[in-house]
Write a structure and sequence with these properties.
The protein is of the alpha/beta class. It is built from 8 helices and 7 strands; from the N terminus they run ααββαβαβαβαβαβα. A 7-stranded mixed β-sheet has the order 1-7-6-2-5-3-4. α4 links the parallel β3 and β4. It is globular and about 50 Å long.
């Protein structure tokens, strides 16, 4: 049953995404917020499809910690749904996205329209300086900036290698950082097509105020995200 429902989900997901991508094309000529509203509608559609086709519900906890305006949001990363979901509850957010993703038709175009920040992970120190410069420019508007501290998806219960980009943004932008825990990978694995029924939870944890030293910030960030995610996994 799970296999059949997953196949149905995947088929409809790609049909829905293709339709949305085509219909959103004229919005390239419109204000950014129009494109963001369309992306939010698409993400809500994915959530509804998960519920109906796969028996997967989505819940967000810690709503009192969801930022309004300028802030850094640092979620645990277990699957690509972690990206889609943020559009639903973060207003006009921008993401740090890998350079190679900009080459994907529609996805890359719309990412640039939404003001996403492109990161060249091979660029070392120069890439970090560019990341901070571009983040300052994007946050001239009061927007939350989403960066996945591990830089890539990992299996549930596994702590990835936390990358220095988030620490550079925290230090140079002098913004509060909002860690986010999740168990999403249990129900939407990083690889494969199976979608397992149950409850996906995204939990906004206690924010980290500006002013910590780099090492202390990274320690606190990782501890909060990993402990919160372990709790959601029941570990």
């Amino acid at each position: 049953m799970t296999t059949a429902r997953s196949l149905i989900f995947v088929a409809i997901f790609y049909l829905w995404s293709t339709l949305a991508a085509v219909l959103m094309a004229p919005l390239m000529l419109c204000p950014r917020r129009w494109m963001f509203a369309a992306a939010r509608l698409w993400a809500r559609g994915v959530m509804a499809l998960l519920r109906v086709a796969c028996g997967i519900r989505v819940e967000v906890r810690g709503r009192e910690h969801i930022p309004r305006g300028r802030a850094i949001v640092a979620p645990k990363h277990q699957c690509m749904f972690d990206v889609f979901a943020q559009f639903v509850w973060l207003d006009d957010c921008c993401f740090v996205m890998r350079k190679e993703l900009t080459r994907i038709p529609f996805f890359g175009w719309y990412g640039r329209k939404l003001g996403m920040i492109v990161l060249d992970r091979e660029g070392a120190a120069a890439a970090l300086r560019r990341l901070i410069r571009d983040a300052r420019a994007r946050l001239a508007d009061p927007r939350p900036l989403v960066i996945f501290p591990e830089g890539h998806r990992g299996a549930p219960g596994q702590a990835g290698a936390y990358q220095p980009g988030v620490a550079g943004l925290y230090r140079d932008l002098d913004l509060t950082t909002h860690p986010v825990a999740t168990n999403s990978g249990v129900h939407w694995p990083a690889h494969g097509f199976l979608r397992r029924p149950g409850l996906i939870v995204f939990e906004f944890l206690e924010p980290i105020a500006p002013g910590l030293k780099r090492d202390e910030f990274m320690r606190v960030l990782e501890e909060r995200i990993e402990a919160g995610s372990q709790t959601l996994l029941g570990l």
